[in-house]
Protein 1
Amino acid sequence: MYSIYEKKAHGTRNIASQISYWTDVALLIKQPKFDVEIPHGVDEISIDSPQLGEFREMLTDFIQFDKVKFYKRFKIPFITFHSTLYDNKFKCVSHIISYKHDQDDKIRFGDCIIFIQCNNDYYAFINNYRDEAPNNSLSSLLKISDTATCQIIEPLDRLYSVKSKSDSFEILSMSKVRHKCISVPVGDFFCLTEIRNDFEHD
């Protein structure tokens, strides 16, 4: 106890009085209780919503509707994921996520179209990005020369992936999701990075 309040005290005179004062202050200040949210969906949406029109047939093939709920947003502690159907996304692009499958360590990217709750588990219905040819790496697109003096190519191509939109869709467990990501158009492609966009807004 002494060591805690000794740091707050100034000098050694009247140290007992100062410790007593800081003890009183600590007891008077109410410490708010902080509850960490459990993962949950936000902004429920009906399968009959016009917003789901173009995806309704695909979703019908994937799932049984009497057992699920749909949401436009999904929250885990301190992070909110958005779907492409979310209404209040302002100018940000906050629906792109990175993820991995169990079979390999490859980082993949997708657009979250809608979030799905089945019992207590959550999933995202996503539109995948597809890999481009190796010569469409970011360093190639930017025409960076591969010389002994230029050490930027390896980290650049590792941190930034060049992808394009695909016609491939899947339902992904939210437990597989790594991060919210950033996308920048580069010519006919998209430059995607896991450099964190997690805390942007909710």
Protein 2
Amino acid sequence: MTHRTHHLAALAGTAISAIGALTPSDWAHLAAAFSGLAAGTYYAVQAATAAHRLILRLRRRHRATK
């Protein structure tokens, strides 16, 4: 397994476990992010920021449960 493949596999595993930990609020943030991407550049930037915050929150939550 190459380094890139290993990294992608680890990322996929993290994503799968994170999906199981999503709260209704997290799903609302994701929905807003995707609708923002469809709305245009300004909203795409806002959506990317919201998605990044969600990822950071999920990482903190994941670390806290280890």
